[in-house]
Design brief:
The chain is an alpha+beta fold. It is 21% helix and 42% strand. It has one domain: Immunoglobulin-like. It contains two helices and nine strands, in the order H-H-E-E-E-E-E-E-E-E-E. It has a five-stranded antiparallel beta sheet with strand order 1-8-7-4-5, with no helix packed on it. A four-stranded mixed beta sheet has the order 6-3-2-9, with no helix packed on it. A hairpin with a 2-residue loop joins strand 7 and strand 8. It is elongated.
């Protein structure tokens, strides 16, 4: 047996041993516990599906990059007696058109459709619009909406 054949056999044997060891150390999938769902929901997202929808005319995805997320902490849920603490809302966003400039504004929306302005700005390909705003407010907002051009992106506010 020549040295090339021995090297090839050595490599094949080494790979077989490594793949056997790795296969034994990878755990099988397991049943997810309720506490794991609660921890991930509280600190890593939500059980609610995060979905938004644009309104008005369709926009080709290749013409605009847009994202937004909104969270709310409702202090009434904590049952703090004689407290005047207002609810806390945080909104993060990013908007960037492929060409031209686009004006946008972000509002918070109550279940009856009332709104409160959060921020506004302009975005272009060279200068994307993005940021993070926090707002204390006594109202219970359930949705956040970004208006841009003739369109809007609206999504539910995730509660913490």
């Amino acid at each position: 047996m020549n040295s090339i054949t021995r090297h090839i056999l050595f490599i094949i044997a080494t790979l077989a041993i490594i793949s056997t060891v790795i296969a034994q150390e990878i755990p099988d999938w397991y049943e997810v516990s309720q506490w794991e769902i609660e921890v991930c929901s509280k600190w890593g997202g939500s059980e609610l599906v995060q979905a938004g929808a644009t309104t008005a005319k369709p926009i080709s995805l290749s013409q605009l990059t847009l994202t937004m997320q909104a969270e709310g902490i409702y202090f009434d849920d904590f049952n703090i007696p004689n407290s005047s603490v207002e609810n806390l809302y945080t909104v993060s966003w990013y908007i960037q058109p492929v060409a031209g400039e686009i004006e946008y504004n972000i509002v918070l929306v109550t279940s009856d459709g009332s709104t409160a302005p959060l921020t506004s700005g302009k975005a272009s390909y060279q200068s994307a619009g993005f940021g993070h705003e926090a707002l204390y407010h006594p109202s219970i907002f359930t949705r956040a909406r970004m208006n841009f051009g003739d369109n809007a992106l609206e999504l539910p506010i995730v509660t913490k």
